[in-house]
Write a structure and sequence with these properties.
This protein is α+β, with helices and mostly antiparallel strands. It contains three helices and seven strands; from the N terminus they run βααββββββα.
């Protein structure tokens, strides 16, 4: 399952050379994950209201080509496997010409909001993802 969102590069996201600062790609990844959750019909706010938070456990990002001031980038989040204790999201960012700017993997965990202890992925999210993955095949 793949989810995309596009937006222009803003001045404050760049360095003195007009190139996107490396830290912003992590934000771009998050934008795509938020679109993913909204599109799946289970926004982060609803997950938290249901008692589960979704912290980032790890981020792996590889920079391929610089995005620049004036570019429009597309951030992509892709899920290939049903989550249990963690959700692995493959992430990419492309410029308006389709050139890969960055790629990586974000691993999300699930915590009980009250106790802060690890918990399994909410069943509602598991069902939605399983359905989406099976429909792609």
């Amino acid at each position: 399952m793949e989810f995309k969102t596009s937006f222009p590069i803003r001045y404050y996201e760049t360095d003195q050379m007009g190139i996107v600062h490396h830290s912003n790609y992590i934000r771009f990844f998050e934008c795509a994950r938020n679109v993913m959750m909204d599109t799946l019909g289970y926004p982060i706010q609803q997950c938290e209201a249901d008692g589960v938070t979704i912290p980032v456990v790890s981020v792996d990002c590889h920079y391929k080509h610089p995005a620049k001031m004036g570019d429009t980038v597309t951030a992509v989040a892709r899920i290939e496997k049903t989550p249990m204790a963690k959700l692995v999201v493959q992430q990419t960012v492309y410029n308006q010409d389709g050139v890969l700017c960055a790629e990586g993997t974000v691993i999300l965990g699930f915590l009980n909001k009250e106790t802060g202890h690890p918990t399994r992925c909410p069943e509602k999210l598991v069902s939605i993802i399983e359905k989406g993955i099976s429909e792609e095949k």
